Amino acid sequence: MRNVLNLIRRDIILQKKQLMIFIPYILFFILMGSPAVLTYLVASIFIPFNAYAYDEKAETNILLNSLPYTRTEIIAARYLGAIVYMAASIGVTSLALLVFDKMFTWTDVAIAVGLFLVFASLTFPLFQILKPGYISTVVLTSFILISLVFLRMSRALPEYVTAISEFLERFSGPVIYTGAAVVVMAVYAVSWGVTTVIYQRKAF
């Protein structure tokens, strides 16, 4: 576990210059009047996906595999680190929203967390398959697509509010949140296992 924590700390240290643009990055979305869910989502994506892009440029995987870290620990640091960074990003974003007197709810946070974990689950294994040089492009493209899709959905959502509300009224709040959390965490766990298998078989 110590090795995993050291790897997570390494990502933070190596990205300290990039982290200086994190606040302006979040403020841009807040001042543009973006929905709170979208702001939380892009904030959560910033650090873990930037770490992948950085490692690609520096060919960090070659170095890591020459050090006393197992490949299982390296992937564990990616997945656990993503959760740590997400929690920190949500805390900073919430503070920024309060400072600018922007409304947000715990539902916004819960939805953003779920979307981030699902997105990470789908992309982390993909990053182990992509050839070097493509990760940065995928991160940037994915970010743009997420923003466009979310904005489109947020505009179209009012048309389906009634139908969605009637469906959700069949279940209690705790049942809905618990069920969603179980499904999302299951997807994340499966992704973790798949990525570990791919990385262990990968040649550097």
Short description:
The chain has 204 residues and is mainly alpha-helical. Helix content is 79%, strand content 0%.
3D structure, described in words:
- The chain is mainly alpha-helical and 204 residues long.
- The chain has helices at 2-14, 22-31, 36-58, 60-64, 71-99, 106-129, 135-156, 161-168, 173-200.
- Helix 1 (2-14) packs across helix 5 (71-99), helix 3 (36-58) runs parallel beside helix 6 and helix 3 packs antiparallel against helix 7 (135-156).
- The longest helix has 29 residues, at 71-99.
List keywords for this structure.
single chain; 204 residues; mainly alpha
Terminal-residue CA separation: 24 Å
| Mean pLDDT, all residues | 80
Helix content: over 70%
SSE succession: HHHHHHHHH
- Contiguous runs where pLDDT drops below 50 for at least 5 residues: none
Strand content: under 5%
Q: What structural category characterises the helix and strand content?
A: mainly alpha
What oligomeric state do the depicted chains represent? single chain
Spatial extent as radius of gyration: 18 Å
**Most strands sheet:** none
Q: Supply the number of helical segments.
A: 9
- Strand count: 0
The outline comes out as globular
